UniProtKB/TrEMBL annotation:
Gene3D superfamilies: Vaccinia Virus protein VP39 (3.40.50.150). This is Class I SAM-dependent methyltransferase. CDD domains: AdoMet_MTases (cd02440). One of its GO terms (molecular function) is S-adenosylmethionine-dependent methyltransferase activity. Residues 93-144 form the Methyltransferase type domain. It comes from the Archaea. GO terms for biological process: methylation. It holds the Pfam family Methyltransf_11. Signal peptide: none annotated.
Length: 205
């Protein structure tokens, strides 16, 4: 599997137990309302009715369009209480992707993989996105969104040391490393006083 980060790139300010760090549910919004509205609009544009979706590194909300009838929506995360409250998930599983990057889904089983405001915590993103490519059907879409907010103590050094535009390029590098996606597209909207909105999308070849 590809390795796109060095050991230095993967370093975190706090490298303690992830299970303990995320054991308390956080029923809060991690980005502001304009960001969430843009993300929902992007999902509406990129997803189709009856799509099967994997919401990777999810929480108690998925930001999916409320009127979009999807197929099966599978959630992934680290906090059971948050995942259990998310009413858009048909089923979910817990897994620490920094320990185990193999997704427990069949190959070519979903039409879309979403990762909202969490990519900055992946220490082995090349391996994770290789798995994303495996579980996606041909023509399926990946949507990776992020802002400037984060748990700084858990974000990897490669993320903390980059500007927003450089972070978008880094996500593109993650996708390119799999040799499975078309050229990624960057979507951004930056307004004074608002959380900057960035998303990278790509289609599986």
């Amino acid at each position: 599997m590809p390795s796109v980060l060095s050991e230095t790139d993967r370093q975190r300010l706090f490298d303690g137990d992830d299970e303990r760090f995320y054991e308390q549910p956080r029923f809060v919004q991690h980005v502001d309302e304009p960001f969430r509205e843009r993300l929902t609009a992007l999902y509406r544009d990129r997803l189709s009715p009856d799509d099967d979706v994997l919401d990777l590194m999810s929480s108690w909300v998925s930001h999916l369009p409320p009127d979009l009838e999807l197929g099966e929506v599978v959630g992934h995360g680290l906090n059971e209480a948050e995942l259990d409250r998310n009413d858009r998930l048909d089923r979910w599983f817990r897994q620490n992707l920094n320990d185990d990057q193999t997704l427990p889904l069949e190959s070519a089983s979903v039409d879309a993989v979403l990762c909202a405001v969490s990519v900055q915590y992946l220490q082995y993103p090349g391996r994770v996105f290789t798995e994303v490519a495996r579980v996606l059907r041909p023509g399926g879409v990946v949507v990776v969104s992020f802002s400037n907010r984060m748990f700084a103590q858990k974000a990897i050094r490669a993320w903390r040391s980059r500007s927003m535009d450089e972070r978008a390029a880094l996500v593109g590098t993650y996708l390119d490393s799999t040799d499975a996606f078309d050229d990624p597209t960057v979507h951004d909207a930056v307004e004074p006083g608002r959380d900057p909105f960035y998303a990278v999308t790509a289609l599986k070849r």
